[in-house]
Write a structure and sequence with these properties.
The protein has about 325 residues and is an alpha/beta fold. The chain has one domain: Spore Coat Polysaccharide Biosynthesis Protein SpsA, Chain A (Alpha-Beta Complex), CATH 3.90.550.10. The chain is built from 14 helices and nine strands. It is globular, with a radius of gyration of 19 Å. The N terminus is likely disordered.
């Protein structure tokens, strides 16, 4: 089998074998410590506290030339201790060491493939089209899930089956995975969220029902694919439920879209506002129509005191912030 044929290999393992292997990941590279290298989450019991099985959660990672971060991303998913995980990696024509890394973790994946470079939305849609999970999400190949993220998402649905979309707080990390800041925000309301994309993409999980009504991702987006999807979710009648936990980590680095594509971001936001609000307008103007800035300023001050790292306190503070009126 030649190298190209090998790179197109698809993997679907027997579920029992896969779940056993998932907790025997390759040893981390020398010098790597902490989550998700040496830290781990205790494997969950077969059932949730109410006695029902844990729902299957599908996570899709679209990968394009992020080989330096991909292994850490994959481990952050595979080390969740979540036995009904379905994890897929879609390599979107990478030319770096992405395929080499994927192959090292191949026994632990439910599916992977290499496709010609078609863009991030198409890669995510490829994975979602094969997914079987009750709960769905995508995680970019330079970002992370934090410990117990999947467990917390599933427990939220157990406590309130009416919840269809969850989101959470994020840590912002650098190229060496050091936390440089914390991203916290008020409980989402559709009015503000239709104008400002302030929720953290890597923390968002939604039900299959939502995806079937409002997906897939628009293939032409280069930056704002998540914001367009949130708009479609809201247009279909859904709301976002904020979990008072740090669910994911967003990586800032020189090659990230946030560092290199600000002009594209602004133009795509303008297109989204035209589509979903019927207004040819820029984000800066819409900020003034929301309570987001006023409430977030208060939350940022509280976050610097690490008050949002205690979930019960975070829940209390979110209630207080929600009552804060913009002035």
């Amino acid at each position: 089998m030649n190298n190209r044929t090998q790179s197109l290999t698809l993997t679907t393992l027997n579920s029992r074998s896969k779940h056993t292997q998932r907790f025997k990941l390759p040893a981390p590279p020398a010098g790597k410590r902490g989550w998700p290298w040496t830290g781990s989450v205790k494997k969950l019991s077969a059932n949730m506290p109410n006695g029902t099985p844990w729902p299957r959660i599908t996570v899709v990672t679209p990968a394009y030339n992020q080989g330096q971060f991909l292994e850490e991303t994959m481990r952050s998913v595979l080390m969740q201790g979540y036995t009904t995980l379905e994890y897929m990696v879609i390599n979107d024509g990478s030319t770096d060491n992405t395929v080499e890394i994927i192959k090292e973790y191949e026994p632990h994946l439910d599916y992977w493939t290499t496709q010609p470079n078609s863009g991030q939305p198409t890669a995510v849609n490829t994975g979602m089209a094969r997914s079987t999970g009750e709960i769905l999400a995508w995680l970019n190949s330079d970002d992370l899930l934090l410990p117990r993220a999947l467990e917390r998402v599933a427990l939220a649905r157990m406590r309130n089956p009416e919840i269809k979309i969850t989101c959470g707080f994020r840590e912002v990390i650098d190229t060496r995975s050091r936390v440089v800041s914390h991203w916290v925000h008020p409980r989402p309301c559709n009015y503000d969220l239709m104008r400002i994309c302030y929720i953290a993409q890597e923390t968002v999980f939604w039900s299959r029902e939502v995806w079937e009504k409002a997906g897939p991702l628009g293939a032409h987006w280069r930056y704002a694919l998540d914001f367009d999807l949130w708009q479609k979710f809201m247009a279909a009648g859904y709301t976002f439920h904020l979990l008072p936990y740090f669910i994911g980590a967003f990586r800032r680095h020189p090659e990230s879209k946030g560092s290199t594509m600000e002009h594209i971001r602004q133009e795509e936001l303008r297109e989204i506002y035209k589509r979903h609000l019927g207004r040819d307008i820029y984000e800066r103007t819409l900020l003034d129509e929301t309570s987001y800035v006023e409430r977030t300023r208060l939350m940022v001050r509280l976050a610097k005191l690490r008050l949002f790292h205690c979930p019960p306190l975070a829940d209390f503070l979110l209630d207080r912030v929600y009552k804060t009126q913009a002035t």
